């Protein structure tokens, strides 16, 4: 999980993760809550990352979680739309996307950007449950990497700690440009400086 206050680069971190999946010729499942597929294309093109071909070819599958009034059951190619108020529907769509990936033993990554809007419509404990189920499903399907983002302070501290305890690894982005690895399997706690450039997240060498 990558978390931190607004405007520190959490989504850029996710974009970088998607771009790396394309570079490595891996499939990618992207769950969005703050934007749809068109906005994802525009945002990534700002860093000179083109994903249109991957979307057309199905290499990137987008599940867009929208507000209740905007959500529909429409499905168009690699885009699926579900309601933020019905996160269990996310699991149904995820199963559908994962099925061919598992059948063909495809290397893939999974991104969820971001958890935060779900708290408007759902209690934190339900979101934590869905997060654990999501993580379990993509791991069992053989994901080579899972990234989830969260706006720090968007829920009460106790609930935030429960959400963070639902994932294996934690990376905290600070407004002053410090990236802190708080918990990552096999990696000691460490802090490095980072910046957002026109090519994405750039970590400064120690």
Task: Chart the SSEs and their pairings.
Layout: E1 2-4, H1 10-23, E2 27-32, H2 37-45, H3 52-57, E3 60-66, E4 75-76, E5 79-83, H4 87-103, E6 108-113, H5 118-121, H6 124-140, E7 145-151, H7 157-164, E8 170-174, E9 178-183, E10 190-197, E11 200-203
Parallel strand pairs: 1-7, 1-8, 2-3, 2-6, 3-5, 6-7
Antiparallel strand pairs: 4-5, 8-9, 9-10, 10-11
CATH classification class: Alpha Beta
* Separation, N- and C-terminal Cα atoms: 23 Å
Number of domains: 1
Net shape: globular
Q: Approximately how much beta-strand content do the residues carry? A: 25-35%
Structural class: alpha/beta
- CATH topology description: Rossmann fold
Radius of gyration: 16 Å
Could you spell the SSE succession in H and E letters? EHEHHEEEHEHHEHEEEE
Q: What's the quaternary structure here?
A: single chain
- Number of H- or I-type helical stretches: 7
Helical content stands at 25-40%
The CATH homology group name: P-loop containing nucleotide triphosphate hydrolases
Instruction: Please name the CATH architecture.
Output: 3-Layer(aba) Sandwich
Strand tally is 11
Biggest sheet overview: 11 strands, mixed
Average pLDDT metric: 91
Poorly predicted regions: 71-75
Strand order of the largest sheet: 4-5-3-2-6-7-1-8-9-10-11
